[in-house]
Design brief:
Helix content is about 40%, strand content about 15%. By secondary structure, it is of the alpha/beta class. The radius of gyration is 20 Å and the shape is globular. Helix 3 runs parallel beside helix 5, helix 7 packs parallel to helix 10 and helix 14 (about 335-355) packs parallel to helix 15 (about 395-410). It has a single domain, classed as Glycosidases (TIM Barrel, Alpha-Beta Barrel).
């Protein structure tokens, strides 16, 4: 049984991740994979957005938008760069971040693993290794001992089901690139199996998912042992899975593959994080792609209504309260984002009016950041980052989002951005 204290007020904010923002993450598996030859990554993260040093500026930007919550990840590779060796200066930095969030009126939502892990962990075989759950739980205990008394919600794992979703999306060439990257990592590290959480061989999806399952349970238990009332959950990548006439069986089969094991796993959690970016439609012959209409930088149709569909689906399947732990749009056209946010939130309003318990909405993301194999070519940020100077420039969509927050709090609205 859990005594979790779910947020009493709706959480408005943004989600971020350490490796995608911080820069200088030299001891992580992802940094290693970005720099082997060949690599599936378009470019290396490098200096990122400079957030490791500039985090106070970023938190101030978030507060200026009226956020009541801020999600960030604690980078395991920084805290434990070698197995059993804890970097107290890294913990000091996260400690200061939590205090600053609270001083600015933002609830810290902490992710314990946002894809990346230490290099030593990957050298040993990654998440499928027998010791992985215990090592991850021990890391969670270290973090909880330092900042666990002040965080608002704990997310153990970020999108452990994403590689499975990509199984049906990535072309064969991409899977070949992943395999070649991991082969190169084996050679460069001098190990038999260099394995990461978000660069996964297609034939090893089951192994990695099973490892994630064990790790989530171990982490959840470790977090609750330190602070039983802290709400604990995980986040899932969730497409709005829609059946057109005659496509019902295909939709159910897809849901079983992509989500069923995770729906079972989170039965003991306090909430479920839903991370939605797309809609998929199924007819009698398979996936149906709408013709015409707007598309995002990934080439996918822009569907603001997909958020409400994903939230409804996950709550119906699990009965858990939902935290929208990520939702956004990859686009260099900020006018498109400025139209997208209000439309998506309107759908979320309707879902909540229909009785779906939603705890908060965290937009992905604050800054234009490093987007994994796409590098810096995808733009999800409410704030532009100059790649030469790292100067932050809030986009008009940030003001639109801030206005949506104010409107739902009953605060006076400002002149809409045009």
């Amino acid at each position: 049984m859990t005594t979790a204290h779910l947020p009493s007020a709706f959480l408005w904010g943004a989600a971020t991740a350490g490796h995608q923002n911080d820069g200088g993450d030299t001891m992580s598996d992802t940094t290693f994979l970005e720099n082997v030859e060949p690599t599936v990554f378009r470019e290396a993260a490098g200096v990122g957005c400079g957030t490791w040093e500039r985090w106070p500026e970023d938190l101030d930007l978030a507060a200026e938008m009226g956020f009541s919550a801020f999600r960030f990840s604690v980078e395991w590779a920084r805290v434990e760069p070698e197995r059993g060796v804890i970097d107290r200066s890294a913990l000091d930095r996260y400690d200061a971040m939590v205090d600053r969030c609270l001083a600015l009126g933002m609830s810290p939502v902490v992710t314990f693993s946002h894809f990346t892990a230490p290099h030593w962990f990957a050298c040993r075989g990654g998440w499928p290794h027998a010791d992985a759950p215990a090592d991850f739980a021990a890391f969670c205990e270290v973090v909880m001992d330092r900042i666990g008394d002040r965080v608002a919600m704990a997310v153990t794992l970020n999108e452990p089901n994403l590689p499975r979703i990509l199984e049906a999306v990535l072309p064969a060439q991409a899977w070949g690139g992943i395999a070649a990257t991991l082969d190169a990592a084996d050679r460069a590290a001098g190990v038999e199996r260099y394995r990461a959480g978000n660069v996964v061989r297609r034939e090893e999806l089951d192994l990695v998912e099973a490892g994630f399952e064990r790790a989530h349970i171990a982490a959840r238990d470790a977090i609750r042992a330190r602070r039983p009332e802290l709400p604990v959950g995980m986040s899932l990548a969730v497409m709005d899975e829609v059946a057109l006439p005659g496509g019902e069986a295909r939709r159910e089969a897809i849901i079983d593959v992509r989500y069923a094991r995770w729906y079972r796993l989170v039965e003991g959690d306090d909430f479920l994080g839903v991370q939605n970016y797309e809609r998929a439609q199924y007819g009698p012959e398979g996936v149906v792609v709408p013709e015409g209409g707007e598309t995002n930088e990934m080439g996918s149709p822009v569907e603001p209504e997909s958020l409400a569909g994903a939230v409804r689906m996950c709550h119906a399947a699990t009965g858990l309260p939902i935290l929208v732990s990520e939702h956004g749009l990859a686009t260099a056209d900020d006018d498109q984002r400025a139209r997208f946010i209000p439309a998506a939130l309107e759908g979320l309003d309707k879902a909540m009016a229909d009785g779906v318990p939603v705890l908060g909405y965290l937009h992905w993301t604050l800054l234009d950041d490093f987007e994994w194999i796409a590098g810096y070519s995808a733009h999800f940020g409410l704030v532009e980052v100059d790649r030469e100077t790292l100067e932050r420039r809030p986009k008009p969509s940030s003001r639109v989002y801030a206005a949506e927050i104010r409107a739902r709090r009953g605060a006076p609205a400002e002149q809409p951005v045009r």
